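Hi R.,

Here are the chain sequences for the assembly we discussed:
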Amino acid sequence: MLKVNELNVSYKEIRAVRNVSLSVERGEIVSLIGTNGAGKTSVLRTLSGIIKPESGSIIYNGEDITGLDAHETVKRGIVQVPEGRQVFSTMTVRENLLLGAYLVKDKKLNKKRIEEIENMFPILSERKNMLAGKLSGGEQQMLVIGRALMSGGELILLDEPSLGLAPKVVEEIFNIIIKLKQMGKTILLVEQHAQEAIDISDKVYVMETGEIKKAGNATTIGDSEDIRSIYLGADKTT
Amino acid sequence: MNFFIAEIINAIKLGSIYALIAIGYSIVYSILGLINFAHGDLMMVAVYSLWVLMNLKIPFALAVILAVIITMLLAIITERVAYRPLLNNGEETLIITSLAVSILLQSISQAVFGIDNKALKVPVFFTKRIQIADFTVSVMNFVILAVTIVSVIVLAFILKKTRIGLAMRAIKDNSLAADFMGINRKAVIVAAFGIGSALAALAGITYTGEYVSFDPQMGFMLGIKAFIAAVIGGLGSITGAALGAFVLAFLEIFFAGYLPDSIASYQTVFVFLILILVLLVRPDGLLGKNAKRS
Ligand SMILES: Nc1ncnc2c1ncn2[C@@H]1O[C@H](COP(=O)(O)OP(=O)(O)O)[C@@H](O)[C@H]1O
Ligand SMILES: [Mg+2]
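And here is the predicted structure of the full complex:
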């Protein structure tokens, strides 16, 4: 479904992403793990078209989408739940959901999706007239996942959805990710909670200083010694 | 007492015009983070367009509509050729560019029409005076207030109820998140310029309709004052811009009206003093808590 070849991304002098290649098949959960500053967010933002790559290619459903703007990638079904949630804090919960469907002009479809999403996250229905900035962190995370679903996108890029949330809420978020997969969505997940991410993933990429250092399925990565010591060990101390 | 009421009427009139201009400043600022110093000159463009069209014997109502459209087109063209290529070059570059556009518009207007004052003769209907209790108020006064009120209502409707309005509020709230939603920022910027310039055109036409005389520099000082109004109210906030416009107009008119003649002529100095005072107490302006800062 998604194939990334030799992607390079730079900010002025710094090269944040070096020769990254990865692939995601339809219906999979694929995780991209790695320490802070490894370049994970830069990869996801490049896939969405928020930033432009220096070189390399991004193929989505057989089409070369390298360098397309975000409104073009969203139209094609790639939708992102950004790092730090990024709700529209001065707008209502309902308006936030509607903005997720900004490119969907079918009003009936939007209505149906809002119903489905509010069934999935009843809190969003209870708080529909509340300003999104007033929600708790966990509620905001549900809102931005719901907002992403409003686009109808098939490939969901999740950038650290558990960041800064209480352990109980983190668990809930991981359950939601599993539910997204059951709904037929394809997921590329960036996480600091490496163990939990590996557990639910079909495939795992490990990134370090801009490069993919390791790739494998959940078992090989989960058992690999150096990954255990670096990422899973570090994971437990945080 | 009569003098007092007459001053209030003057302040409402001036405040309405400042509000139209200040709201335009705020809309463009909240979408682009651009302080567009050429915004005031769009008023001048509208007035000269109207003057030319009227000289061509085009009926007044049609001429007004065409003048507004010409102004909008010019604003959209300047966005396209002057600002868009520099969007990623930082706020300072954009501000300097807008000053250059301002000077360019004034120079072109001088070259084509000369630097001397001209007079805009609106149909006599507008200059008729209506008797209310002890005094008379021109029809134009009511027109100015009505234009401002209707513009604000239309704008509120656009922002609350339309897709482009939703996109504008989203960009103002969180432009990164708006990008992630697939909102095409370039298209929304064009809409912001279109709306802002239409308001500036209406301000220029109503202002000149009331005060008659105009010249190529007319937009400069008005633009600066409306900008100050927008800053006082909280740059980026539309209600703030309207509030700031009326606060400024009332203070300005009452300074000029009630201070001894020897210092009343310094009313512009007072305007800048007010700005400094407000910003000392509230750096983000009166209603500016949520104004975009980067
Ligand atoms: N906007 C930016 N400008 C300059 N450097 C950046 C920017 N965003 C990220 N970086 C740098 O790029 C590298 C990768 O960052 P990022 O992709 O955010 O990593 P991660 O998401 O894995 O923490 C870091 O060294 C970071 O400092
Ligand atoms: Mg990151």
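The first strand of chain A starts at residue 2 and ends at 11. The pocket of magnesium ion (ligand 2) is lined by residues A 40-41, 83, 160 (CB under 6 Å).

Let me know if anything looks off.

Best,
T.
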